[in-house]
User: Which sequence fits this backbone?
């Protein structure tokens, strides 16, 4: 989130790998929230949480929070990151300040809101204590709550492992025509970022050719894994890695592939709104989502990757250090978001 | 005399109030819409929006596709509704009541829910019907018979839930043809088929056309079905395109310009329809002298019944079966068996997911409030106009009927432009949705009331007045009980309309004013089809329960005769 990008990414990667390898440090499970904050939050009784985390995972977080703090009810608003952006921008344009805590996989949204000073300065204690420098806003307005990859995946009942694509280039093979699904950058922050990163690596001509493969176009990055699991399409071009993980654990025949060209890395941020109608409940919830308890829950239940050094990677999941990733620089991404969406629509028609 | 003057004053005040409310409801959003369409972001006059509509292929293409879909869906709805309506209202087909009930159920089913169900049935690879087809016909692994993600698929899905409009208009007309005309034809030697072809059909042709035009307008302006089925196929309709113009950075001016043609087309079609139905007046010249004679189907009884049930596979049997299956199995790809049964989706929607409760509460509040408000306004307007109590009473029905020309998404854009800024800051409250629903449902409600008022002679009230009742007493004791069925029908129709609405709602909802239709749309966006199945079935159960309950409420003269 600062400009000196190259070292940042190396450090980020190290942090994630450390987390992945489970560099344990004894730390209390319970949240370290101050009793005054809990009391004030309980008095408010509720908070509105907007997120682009896939609904089953987000609901698990909310339910767990509500078990920890029975007096507080979280209103969960889940939709694609670009629609989170659209909704809150619309609400703020009409002077409706309803959002308390916002999570989004589109980092440029937070960069924009920081400029508009819509975000509160609030650094949750775990973020202050153990978060990598590069995964938190230097002014304390937001921090990365999760990282994930956008991956290729295939249905293991429909595609044999030896036939499965290994790279983005493989997806252009005629045999996959009409058998692939992908998400849309107009709705998904993950896909804005991954489209940008893939375009950087392969150029727009790649998408031009890809668009001719009669691809099923869905909206959220959570949807392609579900279409593959369901057997509607055999291969997903892009989509959320963590959804692939949890669907497989539910018994679905789906296997992720880390493209040889690299898999786009996306981080989701959390920030508290400055004009949050429930400022204390919002801060308590922010404390919670960065706590080891929630971070481990997200990693186990969902398969998101954490920046918390004490989070242990579930067995069977490849550590990030073993994967070639494509990184995006937030400020560069911010400058190209509109262009990415526009070009994409030109190639794919919607 | 003084009393009479005071009464008149009250009537005039009421008239003025209702006229003002109706005018605000319609004129304000359309006015803003028109203004936005000819201005740019900074409020300067421009024609750029319209130029872009014509010049930009990304805007032009949705227009063409939308027309294809609307024409296709209207023709299909017509092709299905005509035999169905004729069989139900003119023949001795068995189980006519059941078939009518199934048509009503198709009307109650929200089209977006039907679209999700048809995804489960006819997606090319995972669709249940395609899986069966592959097994039965021994097809290759990725061959398929049906593909719901196509223009044809969208047409089919829309027709499934718009044919009741054609059916209702037509069944009504068929029942109004006096048997005398049939008899005349028979006496002159015409057989059953000759009568059908040369008497019945020409008489109801205007109704068929009128109903088909309603279906055309519905298909033209629908949002849910193409949003669910067309986007995956990689094309936009006009409504989904307008919706996409609200993505950041929003382009409300272009959206307004794109919505206006829809308004104009609707106005034109409605004018044409009125002209058609106006010509029909000779149909009932003979009056309802004797009840229509039912044609004896004889050996064709069973095939005809089979045809009806075959038609009902589309809107009801198959989709409901698919929804129930998905609601109770663990993963979508699982076959239905004891080992794959799961409470997962039920548990998630009914207990875990916070959105269910909030949205259900909002939906019910809005449904009840809109239905009550529309029924009340429609009754007042109907009464004032019918009894000709105030000068200028002729304008009220016109005002009440005006929103019929405004498609949901156009109203959505208009209301969004009006109520997201001072002085009317309704966005973010249930108020804006209430305004939207009341406006959109007013014509349907008013049509019901108007029809009933026509059948009520004023002499009943006058008799009551002669015996010393005040006007209010006469209203409450005589007129209201006679209108009971109408009131219930109006209320139920509006309530169902609110449950079905998505195209205006999607633009007007906020995090604190979510309704079930929007939650279902959001769930679809992330592919939670199992959860949608549960929520959709839950919504339907509640809708049916409320409609049944309202029908049994002892309101308005439900008391026994003395």
Assistant:
């Amino acid at each position: 989130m600062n400009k000196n990008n190259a070292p940042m990414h190396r450090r980020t990667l190290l942090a994630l790998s450390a987390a992945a390898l489970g560099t344990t440090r004894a730390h209390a499970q319970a949240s370290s929230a101050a009793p005054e904050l809990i009391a004030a939050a309980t008095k408010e009784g509720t908070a509105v949480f907007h997120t682009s985390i896939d609904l089953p995972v987000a609901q698990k977080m909310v339910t767990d929070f509500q078990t920890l703090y029975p007096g507080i009810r979280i209103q969960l608003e889940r939709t694609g990151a670009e629609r989170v952006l659209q909704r809150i921008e619309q609400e703020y344009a009409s002077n409706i300040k309803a959002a308390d805590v916002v999570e989004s996989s589109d980092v440029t949204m937070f960069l924009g809101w920081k400029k508009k000073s819509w975000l509160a300065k609030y650094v949750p204690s775990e973020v202050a204590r153990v978060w990598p420098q590069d995964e938190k806003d230097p002014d304390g307005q937001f921090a990365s709550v999760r990282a994930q990859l956008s991956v290729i995946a295939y249905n293991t009942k429909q595609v044999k492992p030896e036939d499965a694509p290994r790279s983005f280039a493989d997806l252009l093979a005629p045999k996959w025509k009409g058998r692939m699904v992908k998400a849309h950058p107009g709705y998904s922050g993950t896909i804005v970022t991954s489209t940008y990163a893939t375009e950087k690596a392969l150029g727009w001509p790649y998408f031009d050719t890809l668009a001719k493969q009669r691809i099923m176009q869905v909206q959220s990055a959570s949807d392609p894994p579900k279409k593959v699991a369901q057997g509607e399409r055999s291969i997903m071009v892009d989509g959320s890695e963590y959804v692939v993980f949890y669907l497989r654990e539910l018994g679905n025949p789906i296997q992720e592939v880390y493209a040889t060209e690299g898999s786009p890395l996306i981080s989701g941020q959390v920030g508290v709104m400055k004009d949050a109608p429930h400022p204390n409940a919002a801060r308590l919830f922010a404390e919670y989502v960065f706590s080891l308890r929630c971070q481990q829950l997200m990693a186990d239940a969902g398969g998101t990757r954490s920046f918390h050094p004490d989070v242990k990677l579930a067995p069977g999941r490849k550590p990030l250090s073993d994967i070639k990733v494509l990184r995006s620089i937030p400020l560069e991404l911010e400058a190209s978001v509109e262009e990415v969406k526009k070009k994409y629509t030109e190639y794919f028609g919607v | 005399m003084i009393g009479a003057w005071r009464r008149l004053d009250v009537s005039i005040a009421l008239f003025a109030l209702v006229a003002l409310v109706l005018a605000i409801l319609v004129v304000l959003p359309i006015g803003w819409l028109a203004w936005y369409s000819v201005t740019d972001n900074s409020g300067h006059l421009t024609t750029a929006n319209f130029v872009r509509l014509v010049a930009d292929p990304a805007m032009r293409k949705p227009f063409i596709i939308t027309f294809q879909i609307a024409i296709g869906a209207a023709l299909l709805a017509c092709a299905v509704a005509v035999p169905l309506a004729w069989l139900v209202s003119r023949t001795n087909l068995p189980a006519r009541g059941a078939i009518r009930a199934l048509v009503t159920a198709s009307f109650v089913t929200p089209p977006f829910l039907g679209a999700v169900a048809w995804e489960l049935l006819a997606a090319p690879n995972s669709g249940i019907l395609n899986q069966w087809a592959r097994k039965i016909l021994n097809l290759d692994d990725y061959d398929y018979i049906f593909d719901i993600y196509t223009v044809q698929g969208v047409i089919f899905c829309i027709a499934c839930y718009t044919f009741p409009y054609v059916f209702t208009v037509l069944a009504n007309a068929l029942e109004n043809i006096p048997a005398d005309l049939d008899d005349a034809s028979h006496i002159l030697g015409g057989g059953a088929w000759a009568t059908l072809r040369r008497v019945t059909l020409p008489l109801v042709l205007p109704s068929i056309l009128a109903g088909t035009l309603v279906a055309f307008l519905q298909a033209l302006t629908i949002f849910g079905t193409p949003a669910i089925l067309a986007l995956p196929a990689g094309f936009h309709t006009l409504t989904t395109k307008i919706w996409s113009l609200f993505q950041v950075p929003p382009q409300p001016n272009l959206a307004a310009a794109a919505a206006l043609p829809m308004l104009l087309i609707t106005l034109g079609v409605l004018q044409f329809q009125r002209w058609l139905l106006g010509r029909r007046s000779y149909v009932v010249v003979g009056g309802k002298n004797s009840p229509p004679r039912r044609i004896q189907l004889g050996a064709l009884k069973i095939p005809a019944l089979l045809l009806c049930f075959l038609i009902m596979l589309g809107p009801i049997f198959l989709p409901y079966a698919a929804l129930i299956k998905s609601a109770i199995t663990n993963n979508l790809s699982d076959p239905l068996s004891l080992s794959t049964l799961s409470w997962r989706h039920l548990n998630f929607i009914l207990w875990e997911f916070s959105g269910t409760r909030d949205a259900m509460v909002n939906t019910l509040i809005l449904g009840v409030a809109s239905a009550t408000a529309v029924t009340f306004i429609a009754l007042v307007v109907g009464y004032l106009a019918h009894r000709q109590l105030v000068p200028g009473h002729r304008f009220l029905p016109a005002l009440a009927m005006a929103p019929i020309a405004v498609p949901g998404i156009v109203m959505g854009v208009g209301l969004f432009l009006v109520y997201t800024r001072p002085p009317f800051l309704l966005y973010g409250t249930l108020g804006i949705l209430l305004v939207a629903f009341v406006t959109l449902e007013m014509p349907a409600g008013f049509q019901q009331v108007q029809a009933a008022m026509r059948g009520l002679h004023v002499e009943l009230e006058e008799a009551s007045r002669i015996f010393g009742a005040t006007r209010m007493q006469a209203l409450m004791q005589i007129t209201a009980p006679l209108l009971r069925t109408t009131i219930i029908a109006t209320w139920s129709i509006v309530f169902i309309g609110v449950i079905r609405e998505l195209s205006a709602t999607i633009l007007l909802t906020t995090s604190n004013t979510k309704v079930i239709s929007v939650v279902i749309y959001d769930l679809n966006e992330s592919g939670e089809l199992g959860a949608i199945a549960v929520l959709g079935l839950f919504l339907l159960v509640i809708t049916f329960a409320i409609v049944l309950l309202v029908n049994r409420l002892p309101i308005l003269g439900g008391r026994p005769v003395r």
In short: Residues 2-37 of chain B form the longest helix (36 residues).
